User: Fold this.
Amino acid sequence: MKVKAKRRKLSLNLNPEPEPSIKEEVLSMRTNYRTNTGVRFEMLSQDQLQELVDGVLHLLEYTGLDVYHDEGREILKDAGAWVDGLRVRLPSYLVRRSLDLAPRSFTIWARDGNPEHDIHIGPGRAHFGPGPTCPNFIDVETLERRPYVKADVPVVAKTVDGLPNIDFCESLGTVNDVHHELGALYEFAGMFPNTSKPIVAWSYDRFDSAGIHEIAVSEAGGQGAFERRPNYVHYCEPLSPLVSTFEAIDKLIFAARHRVPLIFTPCPIAGGTAPVTAAGIITQGAAESWMGLTLAQAIQPGLPFFMGGVYSVMDMSSMILAYGAPELSLMMAGLTELAHFAGLPLWQTGGCTDSKTFDEQAIIEGSLSAYLSALTGGDLTHDVGYTESAMTGSVFQLAAMDESIGYSRRITRGIEVNEDTLAVDAIHNVGPNGHYLREEHTRRHYRTEFWYPKLCDRRNYEEWEMMGKTSFKERTVARVRDILATQQPSPIKPETEAVIQKALSEAEERVKE
Amino acid sequence: MSEILEQISAVVIEGDLDEIKDLTEDALDDDVSAEEILNKGLMPGMDYVGVEFKAGNMFVPEVLRSARTMQESMDILKPLLAEAGVQMMGKVLLGTVKGDLHDIGKNLVGMMCEGAGFEVNDIGKDIAPEAFVDAVKEYGPDVLGMSALLTTTMRTMESTIKVLEEAGVRDTVKVMIGGAPVTQAFSDQIGADGYASNAAAAAELAKEFVGK
Assistant:
């Protein structure tokens, strides 16, 4: 038997890395050659953005916000803010300096060191994930709406772990079946072991935040290691109009002191808690975020900070905050451009709907807003999987949106133009009347040039019929159930498991008192 | 021996055109028979490719690369198989009917049938009924595949079958048809033996026709 040494057992690699498509020396011969990568979306001009920034600075300097936190006001005063009772006004130089201190580019790290789950925040990078705190959930077995319970948390986290276009995790609900003060801690404890994608942690108060942080720090290997490679983001929500609530500021102070990347995201409602005009709601909401920014940078210079959040209209007949309105996407696009102009990443919103069920409305509203979020480069786009105007979380909406986001990402990736992609040689080889299926050029590019749907059906009628004439909804349900049956998130360290149990039992003791 | 056959399967799956000829020669040098190389090396590789393709894990360009890899080996094995009197999968004759110049689908069918182990004669496009008759007489195929993309040209399949009947060769072949506007109902109506909705299904149908 004389099998040559090089004939080792061939390992199958069905997803080869795309080969570099052009030699470096060919590109370096070019002069004054400009490349555009991806589809470009631009709404507001630099002049308009400067006008918005000036409006925000003016608002913070002349009107200010009420800050319901004694220590918070003290810190701001020491930093140079003008404090009068609850009212805090910020001189514009102080806000500008805070904007300068906050980084535009940084990384949120996967807890298990899997580089595919790291999130690199920076220009031209949109990421997606669910939102928090819906009271209801669509049951995975019955497909019926019911209150969100503790057992739903791992379901959401595992689904997030298995969906390729979902980048970070939130719980899609508020846990109803534990003590009402402990929901957020149980959420984090349920999410953290069930996905290694970074988590955005919502909490009620600094006790929750402390428990959450203990868990994350244990996994990171200590506070120092966490600061170098933060594995979660802390979420705080001030109140519109123009109020920094005690809880929001208290949590902010905790996160800033522990160097946890921070989201400070108001939820203003145009026509209700904010001006009816898009420019007006953006100005007010940005001012609410930048009060948090200024406080955070005063405590921890250089802290990664996301401004936010959910800007939409009050539907003037149903009085709800509309999650499927075109104005949501429009306002979020304007806010994204403002954030990027000011040098901050944005906590964006998309992939959500006002529909009560998995129907055409849910897919239209969710897909269009996800597409806009992708186009604008919303740094962390949340609320993917929200239905019923944020009243009900759905992993099915989430999985359907995973498909829409994949579709959108293929479009935003754009067209690469170079000597190789022009394919002049391949066209010459094939010539008139030939075909490209056997071309080396085809094999080299077809996996990266084309997007391959997971849920959209492209089979011919006969095959579709043979496969049971399934609808998009049926395939989505099947995909979610398949992920839940097969997905194996990488495990957390045993010592972190113990920290989780300790944090939960301490919290249970605290609420008994 | 099983090690080299496994390597042949793996090389077919990978579509490694540089390796397959050497491996085939090595196997023959090691006194592995051509029949064994075909049935225990090449075919298991192509079967795996077929399963992965159906599951959506492999795509057409990879399947074609695997089929071509198998053909490289078959070029060496064919005379030996003939010498040993080994029954091949069968012969498939393919053409796009008169008036139709669209042939990407028919080409795909040809490549898929080759991958399934058939000997394929592709006589091209815009083929007149009489030319089909001549080719059937000349090559003696087990299966005749006809394609048309246009609703205006698909009717020519019917007239081609009639001409085959008149020439007395209709019963010597199984006729399968395909193309975007073609359906099973149309196939039944014009007296074809079968219809396949895509290239992979056509190769399966051809296998059924030859009883494999």
Summary: The first strand of chain B starts at residue 91 and ends at 96.
